[in-house]
Amino acid sequence: MSVAFRRESDEEHLEPSFEIPIPPGPNLVTARGLRLTREKVEALEAIPTGDMGEEEAKKLKRELRYWRARLATAQVQPAAQGDAVAFGTRVAYRLGRQDKTVAIVGDDEADPAEGRIAFSAPLARAMMEAEKGESVDFGGKAGAIKVLKIEVVREE
């Protein structure tokens, strides 16, 4: 049989497992985001690995490396002033005919279902530095978003 058709082991043909991708740019966090990251690291470190299978342990270690890196690079941002859209503000806005509210937070703290979007999200970037009553361009449309209200996000 030709060497080309022979496999030494099945492991040669497994999909490689990559590190969890770290979002590009600075790791800006709110005080809440820093607390949540610390809690995540502590929770992962507390998981016993003795009875785990090799793949499960590798997955846990990979996740722990991600969260440790995020904790090490976290940059807590000072509280926003609230007079303009910025990191750490909650913004009520109108897009189309719908009024919505979002808090602008760090990448790891973002959860759109809970009304938290990352500062790096296109919507957040479009509204940055806008003031109450101002309209900003979004999605290729001039004045698509109208900022209705801005308030500072308090620790939750």
Automatic annotation (TrEMBL):
Residue span of region Disordered: 1-23
A Gene Ontology molecular function term of the record: translation elongation factor activity
UniProt biased composition (Basic and acidic residues): 1-16
Coiled-coil intervals: none
Record's keyword annotation contains Protein biosynthesis: yes
GO BP: DNA-templated transcription elongation; regulation of DNA-templated transcription elongation
Transcription elongation factor GreA/GreB C-terminal domain boundaries: 81-151
UniProt entry keywords in alphabetical sequence: Elongation factor, Protein biosynthesis
InterPro entries: GreA/GreB_C_sf, Tscrpt_elong_fac_GreA/B_C, Tscrpt_elong_fac_GreA/B_fam
Name of the molecule in the record: GreA/GreB family transcription elongation factor
Organism (species): Sphingobium wenxiniae (strain DSM 21828 / CGMCC 1.7748 / JZ-1)
